[in-house]
Amino acid sequence: MLRPRYLHALLVVLPIAAACGGPATLPVSAGTGPNPVLPRPERSLIPVVKVASARPWAQGEMPTPGAGLAVTPFARGLDHPRWLYVLPNGDVLVAETNGPPRPDDGPRGIKGFFFRIFQKKAGAAVPSANRITLLRDADGDGVAETRSVLLANLQSPFGMALVGSDLYVANSDSLVRFPYTTGQTRIDAAAAKVADLPGGRINHHWTKNVIASPDGRRLYVTVGSNSNVGERGMRNEEGRAAIWEIDPRTGEHRLFATGLRNPNGMAWEPRTGALWTVVNERDELGSDLVPDYLTSVRDGAFYGWPYSYYGQVVDRRPTPARPELVARAVKPDYALGPHTASLGLAESTGARLPAPFTRGMFIGQHGSWNRRPFSGYRVIFVPFADGRPSGDPVDVLTGFVDGEGHARGRPVGVAVDRAGALLVADDVGNTIWRVSAARQ
Predict the structure, then answer these.
(1) 440 burial class (0-12, 13-18, 19+ CB within 10 angstroms)?
(2) Which residue, 169, 91, 168, is CA-closest to 135?
(3) Domain extents in the chain
(4) 373 with 25: CB under 8 angstroms?
(5) What are the respective helix, strand and coil percentages of the chain, to the nearest 5?
(6) Which of 108, 152, 202, 304 is paired with 328 by a 20 to 30 Å CA distance?
(7) Which stretches within 90-195 are classed as H helix?
(8) Rounded to 10 degrees, what is the CA torsion of 381, 428, 59, 375?
C-alpha cells in the first residue's frame, strides 16, 4: 500500500505526467544510420516515460526470427542472464547478474519513487545472482544439456575474457582474474584483483565489460557514467564514461577513449583491426533524442558526453559549459535509433548464417523506457563493407513485446557460438536463444 504522502504525490503527478513528454514525431529509422535526424530537444517537467511491463514467455512462445533464420532455446530457467562468452572448447559462459546495492543511485524524492516502480515493472528490480554459469552442449544439437556454476559470490559480474589460461571477469567495481583449465566446470581458486574500477554508492551505470586485444597484452574495459548528463557533479564522473586500457600484468590503466556515456559491447573489426563499441546515449530530451550508436573507438578521442551529442551538438544542461571539449568531440560512425538501449555487440566472424548476415555486427537492443512508442526490444545486424557500416540494419530477432505492450523478453548480450549460430541472452525471459540458418 502506498504511504499517504506518496499517494498524494501520485494523484498530483499523474495528471502532469499525462500532459508532458510527448510521443515521437519521427520513426526510429530517422535516427538510424551515419547521418541521423537530430530534431530540436524537447524538455518537460516530467520526461517521457513508457515502460514495457515484464510478462515472460509462455510455454512454447519464442521470439520471431528474421528472414532465412530459425530460433530455438539453448537454455531456459536462468536467473537474469545478461552477458555471454564462448570459450574455445565451445562451452558458453553466462553472467547471471543484476545491479549491486547502490543506495545513492537514481533520482530522489517523488521522481525516484516512480523510477523504482518503473524498474520493478520492467523486470529490472530482481536481486543479482552474482554468478557465472557454464552451459555445455556436448552432443552439438543446439541445446545445453548440462549447466554448472563456474564462479559464485561475485560482485555483479558482467564482461568476461579468456587470455591463455587466465579468465578475466569485470565485476561492478573491479577487474579480477581466475586460473582456468580447458573443460573445467567449476573454479574454486580465489580471485586475483587486477584493477579497481569506479564503483561506490552511486555506480549508476554499473555494467563493466572487458575484451582482450588480439595479442592478449592489453585489456579494454567499459565504464559507464554515474548520471544522465553530469547532474551529480563532474567530480563523481572521474574515470567514467570511458573505455579503459589496462595492463593485465601490472593493473596500470589509462583512459583509451572518453565522453562515451555508457559503452557496453565491444568487438574487433577484422579488416581494419579497430575496436568498436555500442553506446547508450542520454535521456530526457524527448522521444526522438538522442540516438544510441555504434562507433569505432579512436585512441585518445572524446565523444562528447555530457557537453554535446552526436559530435558537436551542444547539450545545454551540463554546467559549466566546456566549449573547448565540444570543439574536439568526435561524431560517431552509425546511429542505432533513440532510446533503443543497444547493449550487446558481436562481430560476425565465425557465424554460419545466410546473407545478409555474413559480414557485420550483431547488436542486442534491450529496449526503451524514455520513448513513446517503444524502440529497441530486438536484435539487429548492421552490415559492413571495407571495415565500416554499409547499409540499413536488418532484423535478427523481434517479437519481444506483445500486442498489449508487455515485454516477454529483453535481449542483452550476443555471441557467436562454436558452430556458427548466434546466442542471445534474454534477461526478462531468463533464456538464452540460439539463432541459426533456417532449414531449406
Answers:
(1) exposed
(2) 91
(3) 51-437
(4) no
(5) 10, 35, 55
(6) 202
(7) 109-121
(8) -50
Q: What is the pLDDT of residues 353-369, one digit of tens each?
A: 999 999 999 999 999 99
SS3 state at 326: helix
Is the confidence at residue 70, as pLDDT, over 70? yes
What gap in Å lies between CA 20 and CA 339, rounded to an integer? 18
Task: Count Cβ atoms below 10 Å from residue 191 Cβ, excluding itself.
Answer: 17
Contact predicate 332/316, CB 8 Å:
no
* Interior/surface letters 22-48, b for 16+ CB within 10 angstroms, e for the rest: eebebebebbbbeebbbbebbeeebbb
Q: Which three cell numbers stand for residue 369?
A: 523506457
| In contact, 179 and 189? CB cutoff 8 Å | yes
State the pTM of this model: 0.94
Write down the pLDDT at residue 44: 80
CB atoms within 10 A of CB 274: 16
Cell of 329: 568531440
- 121 φ, ψ to 5°? -60, -35
C-alpha 111/C-alpha 49 separation (Å) is 11
Report the pLDDT value the prediction gives residue 45, as an integer from 0 to 100: 77
> Average pLDDT of 122-134?
85
Name the class of domain 51-437. mainly beta
Q: Which helix (H) or strand (E) holds 9?
A: helix 4-19
